[in-house]
Amino acid sequence: MWVQFKDIRNEIIKMIDKKMESSAVIKKKAYALSIYFKIKPIFIDDDDILAGHIGGDGNLDMLPYPVKDINLKLLSNKKDLMCLAQYMENLEEEGFFGSILGVHVAVAYDKLITEGISHKIKLLEEKYKCSIHSTNEDFYESMLILMKSFQQLILRYSKLAEEKYKKSGNINLKDIAEACSWIAFNPPKNLFESVQLLLITHECVVSEAGSGSISFGRLDQYLYPYYKKDIDEGVLTYKQAQKIISALWYKISELELSWQNVTIGGIDANGNDMNDVDSKANDLAEFFTEILDTYKLQYRDGKVQAGFYTSYFHADFGKLTGATPDGRKSGMPLSSSLSAMSGMDKSGPTALINSANSINMERFGNGMVLDMKFTSDFLKIKKHAIALQLLVEEYFRSGGMEIQFNIADKETLKKAQQNPQEYSNLIVRVSGFSAYFVSLDKLLQDEIINRMEQDE
User: Is 411 exposed, middle or buried (0-12, 13-18, 19+ CB in 10 A)?
Assistant: First the structure.
């Protein structure tokens, strides 16, 4: 199949390059991809829940086009950086570089699902009219070409599903046909239609460019309103919802050697010794470690082992993560390692370690960290110090692997923030390592301060 797609795309590229030799590269790309969407083979199996195949195109870029009259001598003239920069821009315009979107990006699927394709086309038509005879004319014309060809691809799936439904009578094919005929023009009305639009859009994105780390973003946030509406109105059962999401995951798995990340919310109220919540955390940990167990190192017969520690990245990643269902606000740090989200462990230290130990740590060959923090005043009382000793002993007897403490008080840490030069020797535990408090990013400092609550 991969060879089939490759041959089709190569022929399209040659044809477009010949017929549109004097056109801007961006228009060549648009026309080449639009033709590909019109003639590429599409498939729907009789038992498919969703239409679309992410992995079938071989992830071939639509470019490069042949490069004419390249003066490679310029590349050796590294002293003249301005000349080199201009030359690289010229190479890009000539098609020397591919149209790959780049890695580590999350596409704005949420906006497309909310607004619908026809709305996007209308906006582009308005911008195109305003851009005629300007430098943006080619760009908006190319965008219109692509959006309309994307629309036609969805209609092709609708037609194919309808034809197969008439032959087999499988109701799932009828659902696909009706959903695709609607989402080709309109915003999705329900969970099924929103997932269907998401999948075919992703198919187009990864077929136009490299697939590495082109991700779905906050899939939970932009699909949840459709799920909740369907459940509340009684038109969707939990079992049906699971079937749709499982079908999406199956389709995503078709694209091998990729990093299609999905960000989802945390485990609400974890750290309070609540069995229903802790069991979900354990299920996620087991799922993660089971997947890792299937991987082997290529250069030696070694295993990939799970590690549950964040170092300082829970603060960095938190800056890029929206609000989560446990009450954490957008941009705030994520939970530190195996610890609960800051402020969520409200039932005391014993409940926290019980929650941590509900997770099977025997699978964490790469280690883990449980962070706990106490005020210095709390431990000045002898019975409290003894209680902490007993807590640590019980933690390890129950299967715990690692635990670390910060013993300080909020006021001292706040003063260190305000006058760092006076507290240059103040050391704290972060998440698996020690660091000078004043050297940490302010967001991470705030996260440590907010954790200084376990004083009783």
Answer: exposed
Q: What is the pLDDT of residues 328-339, one digit of tens each?
A: 788 887 777 777
Helices (H), 56-136: 81-94, 109-115, 117-131
Closest CA to 5 of 189, 200, 208: 208
In this structure, which amino acid lies at residue 448? I
| 77-114 per-position pLDDT tens digit | 445 455 555 555 555 454 444 444 445 567 889 999 99
- Please provide residue 215's backbone torsions phi and psi, each rounded to the nearest 5 degrees: -110, 170
Q: CA 236, CA 192: separation in Å to the nearest integer?
A: 10
- Nearest Cα neighbor of 144 from 125, 116, 167, 170 is 125
Residue 368's DSSP bridge partners are 308
204 vs 82, which has greater pLDDT?
Answer: 204
Q: 176: which strand partners? A: none
Report the C-alpha gap between 124 and 149 in whole angstroms: 14
String of DSSP letters for 295-329: -B-SSSS-B----B--TTHHHHHHHT----TTSPP
375 three-class SS: strand
Q: In degrees rounded to 5, what are phi and psi of residue 436?
A: -70, 125
CA proximity to 160, closest of 176, 147, 171? 176
How far apart (Å, rounded) are the C-alpha atoms in residues 266 and 334?
8
List phi, psi (to 5°) of 407. -110, 100
Closest C-alpha among 241, 252, 189, 190 to residue 216 = 252
Paired residues of 404 in beta bridges: 371
- Rounded to whole angstroms, how far apart are CA atoms 83 and 74? 8
Question: Quick check: 408 and 455 in contact, CB under 8 A?
Answer: no
Residue with tokens 């999350």: 106
